[in-house]
């Protein structure tokens, strides 16, 4: 009979803490009204100019990241298969391919280490 082993905990490095600090400083709360306004602007009958598209795309990407992070943090993706599929699809997209912070949850792994 084999005994499972647990990886030894190592304190976070300065780089990990710095990355976490920057992520926390860059954090923006989810604003559903702003998201719906941005979606309405894109789906409107009016065709946006190239400049407007360049402004709207990062905002829509930000909404997608926040929605995915909310689904992962609340573990809804574990309870609802449709949400899990959408989160996985978002994680595969180029939108969410950003460096993961090893000290915290990432969109790619979706969990704090050890959780």
Task: Give the SSE map.
Elements: H1 14-26, H2 32-43, H3 50-73, H4 76-79, H5 81-92
Describe the fold and architecture.
The chain is mainly alpha-helical and 115 residues long. Helix content is 57%, strand content 0%. It has 5 helices and no strands. It has helices spanning 14-26, 32-43, 50-73, 76-79, 81-92. Helix 2 (32-43) packs across helix 3 and helix 3 crosses helix 5 (81-92). The longest helix is centred in the middle third of the chain and has 24 residues, at 50-73. The two termini are 25 Å apart. The relative contact order is 0.13. Residues 96-115 have low confidence and may be disordered.
Number of strands: 0
* SSE class: mainly alpha
| Radius of gyration from the alpha-carbon trace, in angstroms | 18 Å
Strand content: under 5%
Q: Count of helices?
A: 5
Low-confidence stretches: 96-115
Mean pLDDT: 78
Helix content: 55-70%
The secondary-structure element order is: HHHHH
- Cα-to-Cα separation, first versus last residue: 25 Å
Largest sheet features: none
Indicate the overall shape: extended
What tags apply to this protein structure?
115 residues; mainly alpha; extended; disordered C terminus
């Amino acid at each position: 009979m084999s005994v499972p082993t647990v990886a030894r905990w190592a304190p976070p490095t300065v780089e990990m803490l710095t990355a976490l600090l920057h992520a926390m400083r860059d954090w923006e709360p989810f604003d559903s009204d702003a998201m719906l306004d941005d979606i309405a602007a894109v789906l409107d009958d009016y065709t946006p100019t190239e400049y407007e598209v360049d402004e709207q795309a990062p905002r829509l990407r930000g909404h997608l990241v926040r929605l995915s992070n909310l689904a992962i943090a609340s573990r809804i993706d574990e309870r609802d298969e449709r949400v899990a599929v959408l989160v996985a699809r978002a994680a595969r997209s180029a939108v969410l391919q950003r460096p993961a912070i090893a000290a915290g949850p990432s969109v790619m792994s979706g969990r704090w280490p050890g959780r």
